[in-house]
Amino acid sequence: MDTLSYKTISANKATVSKEWLLVDAEGETLGRLASKVAKILRGKNKPNFTPHVDCGDNVIVINAEKVTLSGNKWQTKTYIRHTGYPGGQRSQTAIEMLENNPARVVEKSIKGMLPKNRLGAELFRNLKVYVGPEHNQEAQKPKAINLKDL
After folding, report:
1. Bridge partners, 79 (sequence order)
2. With DSSP H G I counted as helix, E B as strand and the rest as coil, what are the percentages for the chain, rounded to 5?
3. pLDDT of 11-45, one tens digit each?
4. Tens digit of pLDDT for each residue in 107-134?
């Protein structure tokens, strides 16, 4: 039996092939969109996935303001942050955050699905979220994908 055919191949920065992908968030449910994008950012959709290496693709999300939430979540879902000062806890509902900065709603949901370490911070830098159909990454020639196919 040939034992060389059973070697586990581990990806590294030199062997990873990264590409730019364009995702349209119009009509997508927030959690489903975030989990699929996080999987692409992490590289779990590739056969050479390695847990400790950034082997995912760069993702551009457009139309962030047209994302949907099911049920009563626009009024009941709250986002809590802290200013760092005593008594500095602030909270916003999902509809208030969508009015102030629609891209932040998508960014927070995707960031919450990435690892909470240095690798997760590095993976989050591969994400670009834009309000509206225009984006600044035309030079990278992103390939449009349909999340329903994943």
Report:
1. 92
2. 35, 20, 45
3. 898 999 999 999 999 999 999 999 999 999 999 99
4. 999 999 999 999 999 999 999 999 999 9
* CB contact at 8 A, 34 and 101: no
Give the Cα separation of 148 and 143 in Å (integer).
15
DSSP string, 99-129: HH-HHHHHHHHHHTTS-SSHHHHHHHTTEEE
- Contact assessment for residue 11 and residue 56, using Cβ atoms and an 8 Å cutoff: no
The total of other beta-carbon atoms located within 10 Å of residue 1's CB is 4
Q: Give the span between the Cα atoms of 95 and 138, in whole angstroms.
A: 30
